[in-house]
Write a structure and sequence with these properties.
With 206 residues, this protein is an all-alpha fold. The protein is built from 4 helices and no strands. The protein is 70% helix and 0% strand. Helix 1 runs antiparallel to helix 2, helix 1 packs parallel to helix 3 and helix 3 runs antiparallel to helix 4.
Amino acid sequence: MAGTLLATVVSQRMLARVQAQQFDREQRDAHARWLRDQELTELSRRRDCYTAANAAYRRYRIALMNFLWAVHRAQATPADRTAVEEARSGHHTAFAEAQMIASADVLAELDLMTKVLAGAHARTMRLADGVPEPDGSFEQIHAELVRITQRWVGMRGAMRSDLGLAPAPNGTNPDPADCLPPAPTSGPLPAPHTVSGPASNGPTGP
């Protein structure tokens, strides 16, 4: 009788131990699944954020490029200026979101690009208003916008790296769609003229 009771106690203890171990495994598995779900959710948030930022920055750069050429050809209109400001506003929104989501490496690239774009915007608008800065000639701004186009490739590469993606197929070359509009092939350019709108007093923000 005593032996049977002892065997029963031992069996119950072994069963309890097995159940406890199984419960621990289930808990660890559930926690691992939760962590994985969190990682996938965070990755999705960053991907959406980077996609929006990439599109907004690209739109802003191209709007500045096109407006600069319109000013240089004396063809800029208030509607052209409005297009630049709308693209700039979209860029502000995308940058604000990225500040809350982007990795440190990506945010460093975005921050640098934002500062460079702010300077290009200020010089372009002052040129359009007929009060160019000392380093704000068409040629100087043109060269700066080309450098911005090249810098964007690094920004895009940082985003892809943070998402675990391979480098873009075109390596370090800018997207051909981002090229500046070509200058007229013949005939002299008309003298630059100003476009109605408030003059910028230099970089006051991105």
